Amino acid sequence: MSNATSDKPLLIATGVSKHYQMGPSRLDVLKACSLHVKRGEFVAIMGRSGSGKSTLLHILGALDTAQAGKVEFDGQDVFGAGSERRRVRFRRNQFGFVFQFYHLLPELTVLENVLITEMIRTPIAGWLARRGDARKRALAIIDRVGLSARIRHRPNELSGGERQRVALARALVHQPAILLADEPTGNLDRESGAGILDLLLGLHGDGQTIVMVTHDKAVADRADRTLNLVDGRLRDE
Question: Does residue 126 belong to any structural domain of this protein?
């Protein structure tokens, strides 16, 4: 794959707004936020803790909904008719997610945690026929993140950086069109965080589209383009 970007946006958000009602008070988290992400692009969204950047990422990835605005993926309205079904389909097939706190299942091994994505998106009747290919893909991406020697270990036997590598492999095993990363280095020491960022840059070099939120300017500076979320509004750097 090439790291060249396409001029046609893959993901477009227009006028996305989100608020929470807290008793008599209304908290406006996002105010008419708009952005576009080209295929093959690495976009960083910066903002202080509590600025709403994670909320925005969850809306872009169909994990949450907005009160106003529109999100389109490859020309399709993510929140259009049949919204819930459509959102599930996008999450299963087109989006990959990496979170700050890993969200690994403690009772599963590294290999099983990575395979869980494929198991969830495959009908039970079809799993027996597909599990061999799924296992091969899982082993290949585990090798890509440098954990081939740890496939039988459980999360409590891994360092923070290793856990995040497992989470990254899980997000990539189904070859998502867009990788959405929520503070992927935020819970790691500097060395481990640098390793995760290097992996992301390598994936981007292979053509992976990435949208990452972070509060760390040094991390954001490695992306192709940075947007800042300030007072609920997105601004170009």
Answer: yes
Res 121 pLDDT > 80? no
Q: CATH no. for residue 115? A: 3.40.50.300
pLDDT, position 5: 62
The pLDDT score that the predictor gives to residue 2 is: 46
pTM of the model: 0.90
Question: What tens digit of pLDDT does each residue of 159-171 get?
Answer: 999 999 999 999 9
DSSP code for 54: H
Report how far residue 184's alpha carbon sits from residue 164's, in angstroms, rounded to the nearest whole number: 7
Report the number of distinct structural domains present in the chain. Answer: 1
Q: Which residue range is the domain that position 225 belongs to?
A: 9-236
- Tell the burial category of 145 from Cβ atoms under 10 Å away from its Cβ (0-12, 13-18, 19+): buried
16 near 77, Cβ under 8 Å? no
What is the CA 27 to chain-centroid distance, rounded? 25
